[in-house]
Every structure is written in C-alpha cells, then in structure tokens.
Design a protein that fits this description.
The protein is mostly helical. The chain contains nine helices and no strands.
Length: about 200
C-alpha cells in the first residue's frame, strides 16, 4: 500500500511538472493534473494540501534536476571554454523552453515568493557556476583579463533564456542555435592573442 501511495505521489509530481512546462501555472487545473497523472482525486488531496502545494513540489523537482545538470556540466572536467560550450550546446528542446525559466513568465508564480523561490535558487546557482568557470578561464588565460565574470555570466544565462523565446516566436530552433553560437564566438574572440 505504501508503494502505491509513493507511486501516486510521484505520478502527481511528474504530471504537474509536465503540465507546468506546457501550460504554466494558470493553465494547470486539478482536473488536468488528475488526468495527466492517472490518479484519483483522493490521492491528490492525500499527498498535497492543494494545487499550490503540488505545484511547489513539481517546481522543486524540476529545479533539482536542472541544478544537477548544471553541476554536472559546469563543474566537471574540461577547460572553462569547453564547459561553457557544453552548457550552451547541450541537447535541449528549444521550442518547449526551459522547464524552470518558463515559470517566471507566469504572473501567479512571480507574485508568490514560495513558488518563485525554486526558480530564483536555480538561476542563482547557474550564475555562481558560470562566474566560477569564467574566473577559472581568466586565470588560465583562456579569456581576456578584462572580462567581467559577473556580467558575462548574466549575459550567457540571458542568451539561453532569450534564445528559447526567439525559438518559440519563430517555432524554429534556428534562432536559439544562432544565439548560443554567437555567444560562443564572442567568448572565443575575447581570448588574448586570438586573432
């Protein structure tokens, strides 16, 4: 019985996470959650106090997955440029956008500190990892000493999130791919004596 309850809880979280990615908070109703997860209404209210509680659990799950991916790519092996390239070029569904980043387009999430926290925390971690990698690259002579790590980290994160918006607007991955290749070209051009 406990295993069935754990399974129902997992299906609710996963179903809600997928719906949030597709529709946003406003577009996710309890009925849609139940249909997507394939569990009964009693299971939802057995495990969660309501939609907000379930959405928060789904956000936290998505944020944890993204944070682990960031940690793996940006703190792993390779030069600073290789790690940043791996982050920018990793396989993504550009037309669906960022599972975590898309949440801040939703007014219900933006005005709710608790719902916004997993997003804020994830982007803060991304920023910290990027700053660290850029500083490593500067110290190793991969990047120009005058590159501001804080500003460059923000620009790289904005390229990815903005690339998603451009891809969705065009319904094509091409704008996203151009954006990340452009960011890498600018980073490569900053290398001292790269000419």
């Amino acid at each position: 019985m406990a295993r069935q309850q754990d399974d129902a809880r997992e299906r609710l979280i996963e179903g809600t996470s997928e719906l949030l990615w597709e529709r946003g908070y406003v577009g996710v109703s309890p009925a849609a959650i139940l249909r997507r997860s394939g569990v009964g209404q009693g299971s939802m209210y057995h495990h969660f106090q309501g939609k907000g509680d379930l959405v928060l659990a789904a956000e936290q799950r998505s944020a944890a997955l993204m944070q682990e991916e960031l940690r793996s790519v940006l703190t792993g092996d390779g030069t600073a440029f290789e790690r940043i390239s791996a982050y920018l070029l990793r396989e993504r569904d550009a037309l669906r956008g960022c599972r975590v980043g898309r949440l801040v387009a939703d007014p219900e999430v933006v005005v709710n500190d608790q719902l916004r926290e997993p997003v804020r925390e994830t982007f803060a971690l991304l920023h910290r990892f990027l700053v660290d990698v850029i500083e490593e690259g500067r110290a190793a002579g991969e990047f120009a000493p005058e590159i501001d790590a804080d500003e460059t980290a923000s620009a790289l994160a904005a390229v990815v999130q903005g690339g998603y918006a451009l891809a969705r607007a065009e319904q094509s991955v091409v704008p996203y791919e151009r954006a990340v290749r452009g960011a890498l070209a600018l980073l490569r051009a900053s290398v001292p004596n790269a000419g």
